C-alpha cells in the first residue's frame, strides 16, 4: 500500500516538473543586492517584454534612479514620465549586468561592444536601437 502511494506521488511530481513554467512577473527581483523593478521574470533582468538569452541588462532611469529591465517596464510600473541621461552624466553607473551583477557607467556600456567587461556575458546588440529612450543622443 505504501509503495503504491509513493508511486502515485512520484508520478504526480514528475508531471508537474514537465510543465513549462509560465513567465509570471516577479514583484521585484534583486541581483547581488541591487533591486530591479518592473515586470521581471527572472533574476537576470529578463522581463515580460524582453526575455531572450541576451536580455540580461537593466537600466537605471534618471528620473527615479531605479533599475528597470526596459522602457516598457518603466512605462507600465512607474507613475511618472521617464527622463533620459544627459551626455554630461554618462560617467554615472546606470547599467546593471544581470549575469554578474556589476554596474557599468553609460560610457562603459556604450564602449563594451555588447559584452560585459566583467563577466563577458553577451548583451543584446539590438538594445542600441533604443538608446534614445534612455540616453541623450545627438540629432
Ligand atoms: Zn522613473
Ligand atoms: Zn520590460
Ligand atoms: Zn557581467
Automatic annotation (TrEMBL):
Residues 1-18 form the signal peptide. It holds the Pfam family zf-CHY. Transmembrane segments: none annotated. The keyword Transport does not apply. One of its GO terms (molecular function) is lyase activity. Keywords: Lyase, Metal-binding, Signal, Zinc, Zinc-finger. InterPro entries: Mito_Tim_assembly_helper, Znf_CHY, Znf_CHY_sf. Residues 40-121 form the CHY-type domain. The keyword Metal-binding applies. One of its GO terms (biological process) is protein import into mitochondrial intermembrane space. It comes from the Bacteria. PANTHER family: HELPER OF TIM PROTEIN 13 (PTHR28082:SF1), ZINC FINGER PROTEIN (PTHR28082). This is Chromophore lyase. The lineage of its organism: Bacteria, Pseudomonadati, Bacteroidota, Cytophagia, Cytophagales.
Amino acid at each position: 500500500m505504501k509503495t503504491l502511494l509513493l508511486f502515485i506521488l512520484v508520478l504526480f511530481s514528475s508531471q508537474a516538473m514537465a510543465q513549462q513554467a509560465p513567465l509570471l512577473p516577479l514583484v521585484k527581483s534583486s541581483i547581488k543586492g541591487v533591486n530591479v523593478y518592473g515586470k521581471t521574470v527572472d533574476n537576470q533582468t529578463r522581463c515580460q517584454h524582453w526575455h531572450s538569452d541576451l536580455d540580461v541588462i537593466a537600466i537605471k532611469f534618471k528620473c527615479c534612479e531605479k533599475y528597470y529591465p526596459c522602457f516598457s517596464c518603466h512605462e507600465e510600473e512607474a507613475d511618472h514620465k521617464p527622463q533620459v541621461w544627459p551626455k554630461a552624466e554618462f560617467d554615472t553607473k546606470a547599467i546593471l549586468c544581470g549575469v554578474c551583477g556589476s554596474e557599468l557607467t553609460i560610457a562603459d556600456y556604450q564602449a563594451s561592444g555588447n559584452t560585459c567587461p566583467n563577466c563577458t556575458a553577451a548583451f543584446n546588440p539590438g538594445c542600441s536601437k533604443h538608446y534614445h529612450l534612455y540616453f541623450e543622443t545627438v540629432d
